[in-house]
Write a structure and sequence with these properties.
The protein is 0% helix and 48% strand. It is built from no helices and eleven strands. A hairpin with a 6-residue loop joins β4 (32-39) and β5.
Length: 123
Amino acid sequence: QVLLVESGGGLVQPGGSLRLSCAASGSIYSIYRTGWYRQCPGKERELVASISSDGVATYADSVKGRFTISRDNAKNTVYLHMNNLKPEDTAVYYCAAIPKGTYYGDYEKYDYWGQGTQVTVSS
């Protein structure tokens, strides 16, 4: 069993920045892609960024140019750097892991999920 633990959420003003972290209990990133999802009440879960086992990143159009996903293999940790935050970025953010080679756009295919961390962008 792999545990994913997110941290780094909080309250930030519009235009501000946050860095989310997703620490895995084991060395899974060589065989798993990691995704950052977010969900607002009443809305569908949205994949905002992902990074493959080879380090290739993908982004939703809504966050391109503002969010950056990265990974520290030595620490078994994936990060989501969020800049120029907007009120519409407010959501609970989850990290999740899916075996490499599996279509990563379907959240039901992910094997492991973190508990989520709240990000609130408000003045």
